[in-house]
Amino acid sequence: MQIAQLRAFVAALDENGFGAAAHVLGRTQSAISHAVAALEQELGAAVLRRSRDGVRATPLGEQILPRARAVLRQVEGIEEDARALRGMNRGRLRIAAFPTACQLLPTYIAALRRTCPGIEVVLWEGTDQEVERWIEEHLVDVGVRATLDTPGADELLLATDEMVAVVDPQHPLAAEPTVRLSDLTDDPMLVSDGGCEPLVDQLHADAGISLRIDQRVREMSTLLAMVREGLGVTVVPELSVEEGRGVVAIPLRPRARRHLTLVCATDPPTGPVLALRDLLRAEEHEAERPNASCV
């Protein structure tokens, strides 16, 4: 039995729903559902029942609820003692990230604020080059890096997504299930320096193709607007392409995955950095368990 399972069970009852519980705990609704399902599997019976009015406890759920609350109170007390001892409860945490990574951070920032309200989080948003400079010059405490290489066991993984080619709906390749980088060489190549350009450069180098950039912009919204108007094509992470943009995202062949990892810029890590690291490792541990959902 896992603490995360009890947290999901109690939160679903307190918030009267899996979606609301996910918001409070800083998780996905799927992760909450899987945690409760895993708890029920271990206990051999249902603890929650869905209804039109929300979520209700089963007889077993009602019986174990007081014990679950007591366990969570004890665990929270232990965590509070440990954070206080390591100086993790207070201070400033400066996080540097490029725009395509910044959209993932609010969930973690909100979760950190709930567990460590004494920590002030400051988000620095910049280009790839700016983020690297801030990390190297120790102007921030942690930074997000994007890589096509599989992260090492000691690296903290924020998220993984696919690199995709993006074309306008009228483009000859728009109906293709996959495309190669070589298929795009006849079109003007547009890139953004907000989390994409180094990856695009590496993809072309690995494919033995010379990258010729016709236009470089900062904002992803500008880049996609240019593609939508038929001014060129681009290659970006799929998280950057929102539905309704009027463009077509096509998976690359061979497949290319982007990994977003968190890099510590301070040595030794500060208390707030350790608090964020512990939060991410707890998320990774839960995601790796059977029936758990990835971030």
From TrEMBL:
It holds the Pfam family LysR_substrate. Residues 1-58 form the HTH lysR-type domain. GO terms for molecular function: DNA binding; DNA-binding transcription factor activity. GO terms for cellular component: protein-DNA complex. Keywords: DNA-binding, Transcription, Transcription regulation. PROSITE patterns: HTH_LYSR. It comes from the Bacteria. Belongs to the LysR transcriptional regulatory family. This is LysR family transcriptional regulator.
